[in-house]
């Protein structure tokens, strides 16, 4: 398999698509449908061209080119990481056997389902973010939005390639359905509920790319361990691109907090809404919402399906090769979140296989905390005593052990009536959302930025902040 993609092809790829004419024709017949979806459900802001990176190589160095590209001419390609001919299955009952280059018949339905669910999230986020360009706080941010969008489009291509190449007619039908479901649609919504939520403003976008794309990182990390080698190699390359999406979220929230701190100090008050900023308590409410919704994406604390995926070799653990156990887990146990016999918030011991969702969520929570620590350093450096924090895992949950109760951000169980009275203190209210949206006035001039967010410390690919990242018609 070549490292570099052939950009002379109709569909750029490094999987030697030209050697399988039937597959090539099938994907070329899907391509116009994708472009039609992009035209109707992708970014709405008209642009002439955008300073984008385009993947050209799967090697460790120099894997992308940067340059101004018209969005409609962006070359979405198919990339798999380099193949390791000696790779062995790292976990489950097939551990140490050679990885699979074809789909085993007994696992066909399960693998297809995993690929479809992953594939469904990619176009969903593009649909959620399609109107954000009209309110971008700077050209730098606008460019980052479009970079996230085109790469989510490429990640859709990655999953569609697997469906077409390895799952026959059913795979082709599923690939079509990925374009027919739409985020927030009443008739044909996206599969996972977080991907049917609105992303109506840039604070929501930064929270989404920090929290929800971070869930994507962990889901891709488990699929990267898969015994089905083409899926593993696809996810390994997707993780390279996913890192940028999370950087957008991390540094975006950095800059919102930084500007909020400036306004608090300049005006000697926490109530900075009237000065054109986003108060810390509102930032905390948005954090509470996006974190709790993203926790639900990991599913229930216990799952026999995920146990079966692991045993079969379909889906491993985060950083499986660094785990110091037998990688089979038949004799291991784990503590998971649960309600105790009295209905109080607690934990329970379960088989490690059944508790794999909880294991993955634990890795995610630890990772999320690193961002909160970073934002709190900004507050600390400014001499402020305020701190942002992750809410308790029982807060605002719709999936899992705590879905049937209400809890405060500190993890205190409360009644439904008390939740109704107090939730506006913890989650964004219509007043909060209206204020945030009122700040979302576009700044599309070079070197300028909206007043509610600080400029970035660095530009993109060595370019300055005032570079012409986006050109308009």
TrEMBL record:
InterPro entries: Aromatic_CoA_ox/epox, Benzoyl_CoA_Oase_BoxB, Ferritin-like_SF, RNR-like. NCBIfam families: benzo_boxB (TIGR03225). This is Benzoyl-CoA 2,3-epoxidase subunit BoxB. It comes from Fodinicola feengrottensis.
